[in-house]
């Protein structure tokens, strides 16, 4: 895996901690970040959005005190 891809992937994962207050906000925020990261790294924007949305919602639901 090229270093650029690795750095961008890590940055995208860290960015997922920026949750919203509702599940919809969390899904939209995660989806946008996931899609952007996928486009930058040459992946599928749709797949990145789905993974980002699911990951962000899961993180926020498991760690409600860390999401604002």
Task: Describe what you observe in this structure.
It is globular and about 35 Å long. 74% of the residues lie in helices and 0% in strands. α1 runs antiparallel to α2 (23-41) and α2 (23-41) packs across α3 (45-62). The protein contains 3 helices and no strands. It has helices at residues 3-15, 23-41, 45-62. It has 68 residues and is an all-alpha fold. The longest helix is centred in the middle third of the chain and has 19 residues, at 23-41. It has a domain at 20-66.
Features:
0% strand, 68 residues, mainly alpha, 74% helix
Strand content: under 5%
List the helices and strands in order: HHH
Number of helices: 3
**Nearest-angstrom radius of gyration?**
12 Å
Secondary structure topology:
Layout: H1 3-15, H2 23-41, H3 45-62
Helix pairs in contact: 1-2, 2-3
Summarize the structure.
The protein has 68 residues and is mostly helical. It has a domain at 20-66.
